Amino acid sequence: NGVKYCGTSGPAGVVPSSSKASSLVSCSPLLMPALVLILLAIACGASWPTAASGKGARGAAWATCFAAATAYLSGAAAAPVGFSASALPWLAAGPPAGPPKVAAAVAALAVVGTVTWRRNLKAWPPSLAVWVTVAGGAALVAASTTVLFITAAFLVAAVCSWRLFGMAGGRDDKSSSRSAASLEPAERRCRHRTPSQIHHQQFNSHSCLVLLCAFGMLAPCEARPSPPVFPSQPSPHARRELNDRRLSPAVFDYADPKEVATRLNCTFAGVIAEDHFDAGIGAAFGVCEDVAAPHTLHKLAIATQCADFAYGARLSLEVRRVVRAALVAAEAAARNSTLATSTTASASWGIVRVLSNVLDATTTPTTIGGLPAPSPRLAASAAATGTAAFSVGTAAFSVGAEPRTFLAIRLEYTDYSPTYCSEACVRDGFTHPSGVRQPGTVEYATELSSYEVLEWTSVEVVTVQMGQPVSAIVGCDIGQQVIPATSRALSLMATQHPSVSTTSSTQHIEFWLPHTSVSQCSWGGLGQLGGRYTWEVQYSAYANLNGIRVHELGHNLGLHHSGLMDVDGNALNEYGDYSAVMGSSAFTNCPGFVMPNLITLGWLERNTHTRDWGGAAIVAISDLRVDPFASGSAAGRAYGVRLPVAGSNMAVWVSYRTGAGLDATLSSEVKGRLSVHYAPASGERNTLTYALGFPAVGTPFVVRPQRAWAACSSGGCVHALQMCTAGAAEAMVALVVEDSDDAAIAAAQRLCATPSPPSPPPSPPSP
Fold first, then answer.
1. Which residues contact 692 (CB under 8 A, 6 or more apart)?
2. What would the mean pLDDT of 279-289 be, rounded to a whole number?
3. pLDDT tier for residue 208 given thresholds of 50, 70 and 90
4. Average pLDDT over residues 41-65
5. Backbone phi, psi, residue 552, to 5°
6. How many Å apart are CA 388 and CA 386, to the nearest integer?
7. Please, are residues 286 and 371 in contact by the beta-carbon 8 Å criterion?
């Protein structure tokens, strides 16, 4: 029947996951054989002409087949919940489903109709039997993808061929008034058929139909996907979940529940993070350029569905329109307006299934749909996330080892000027006019977070005359207004500011768009993940709110959002981490980056500056703001503890922040406490980070949810920690592994109560 996923719909749509469990076609090893045997028994009973209940049995057989056909082919509302998910929605979908599937459906229906019509009414000439065999076999083969089911299809066709060739005649129609001379040869032979021959004729027709019906019901099981492994990770060529709370807190719905999926062929252009600081909601979406219509951009609303797409990959997707109602409501409430038309709040595409994901590494484009290719890591960050250990003073970690350049472009229209922030306003928010680095600037936050490894060597601010009315950007749609305005501004730079480079030698380009009251942009900032572009509006110009610009630059550097996760592993809020620049702290203050972000950025090195969580131990963890590369810093100082998850690129991270220096603006719920995060294990870019908790000194903390930890091969490995002491520069932390929560908490408390070993004697003076 062309369905490729057991318990779900085929290429043309999906049903909510809550309805899958009750699907009749559940691929049970007992259910399907039992169903086939029942149908065969009914068919045999209905075919025996002398049976007293023959007529009733035939009625039962056809009622069963009709009910199955109704549920499978049309998804009748009367069918059990989830049963209609195994229908043939690709038939209704039309051309996007592909000519072979449509042809298979038509041929299958033709076979069933022909056999039903001719089963005992008229003669079966050999040519008609050949047609039924070829058409039925072609339909079954076209509806299959695996070798096993294609082979079974040929066997079913062969059986039908044998059966139908034996039906070279009709019933003994004694009431016919036609003369023997007018009859076809086959019909003349049928005028004198015995009851046994009639039985064989009827049995042949019924058994052939039952074989077709059974094969159609078993076909959904041919490519049943494996159950997801926690945490769920997207995989190529697979069906995509609409919502997965273990990956993202965003909840999407289909814009039209009755809409069938459509085919989308496009080239992937990366992910853009959309920030709604006023509404407290973060969003991110994929962008791809239509293959048939260059410069036409499509929004893939659910960024987690795009995790395995590379920039430049040619995608063939089955998609449906989705909407994120919570974002629409939050924006409307925050602005007290119905004009909040978010880039991802309005209907955009959700992926039902990935048909192909192909990357030609030999022809990687530099720009797709106006978006540049992701920036490669600079020497310092690339080296720091490698496997080699580094020591203080190496070239990779020297002051200024990561030079970066920055360009800000203000967009001015014929009837609008962005007076909310002048060129001086834009520049002064990035670097202080005195020339001395000052708190509150982008330069201060980023360079201090990097321990002086990053250095801004060039900061340019210009204004571009767009030469068109501001109505050209009103609506602020990413594909129809924002990206076209971006491309236009860059093309005008060549004539208006020829001395200013916009090539890849400028690592970051920031675009200042019209005030949201004019442009109707609903967001507070946009950042290209791993790319070069960011977009700002008036929120980034407010005093002491340059954290938004740092946040957007963080996206350029490969950082995703930082949210909150509960003890069950469900993502609660993409912005909920109030300790992180990539979380909600960017809108109110700008502290330093959290520990996992520093590993991703390459400003701390995993093997040198962190420890893996093994057995019970007390570990000294340094304050994140203590410079590990400054003269006199202790060699081998640990800035964090890592607990990797087995079979995953994620880990739990533990760090310590006193609130000194750059972290002075931190909340009191974070200062002087440990920070526990769930984040990439080895500095992977463009991956969400989640805060798990901020335990204070003397408070035991059990790591939840329980996962398959890489350091614990057996079950019952409960990890707990407790900060024993909190100093001005470091904290002493007890780490334990036990079989239960209570045992782990008690062990951590005992470890903290154990007197610390005496300090080693001082080294003898050098001769």
1. 565, 652, 676, 677, 678, 703, 704
2. 87
3. low
4. 49
5. -65, -40
6. 6
7. no
